[in-house]
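In this notation, each integer encodes one residue's backbone shape. One such record reads:

___
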Amino acid sequence: MNAETLIDSLHRRGVRLRIDGEVLRWFGPVGVMTEADLSTLRQHKAALLAALAAPDPDAFEERAAIIEHDAGLPRQDAETLAAQEQGRADANSLHSDVVQRWAAEIERLAKLPAVSPEGAEALKRAQAFINGGWALQAARLGWDEVELFGVCPRAPWQRLDWKGAAFGGAAQAVTQEAVTYVGGLRRYRAIINNDGVAVPIWALVQDNPTNEGNAA
């Protein structure tokens, strides 16, 4: 049984898993968890921690929509339950984790010597977008990593229609539909990656690989 299957099985029984540092905690109805369940959690602890530590924003959005529709709950309550199914206390903590991952990827790329001048300037804009709190706001509104940090694989900095909104300039407003920059220019979410070809810049620009091994 893999970690995702185990998490799903426990959710169906009303049990939620949470991460507390390196501790894996569970919450559920009295009498539901058995000694066999606890043994399984201990056996798969490392895989469960890894699965719970990696937020899945697409799955979150889909699950929140399902809960909102099927249970008739307000959107905020549906998002809280969906976030808890990914091991988070609420939607805000899940979005914060997602943005932290984006920030780490952009920071890593900004340190690479092989990035072109155009790319370096775009990455600075992306860092400002994150540091200004706009990425977190966008994440809360459902924007994904491609819509914010996507580029065309064949011409990363030339194709504006495929360029993520975080690369566009100094932001002054973010809505579900668009990012507005200082000066009034606007990038509409609907036209970014509308043919599904763009990829996150960190999927395109990678560190140079190195070999490693153990001395005999």
User: Anything to note?
Assistant: The two ends are 36 Å apart (CA to CA). Residues 46 and 191 are 40 Å apart (CA to CA).
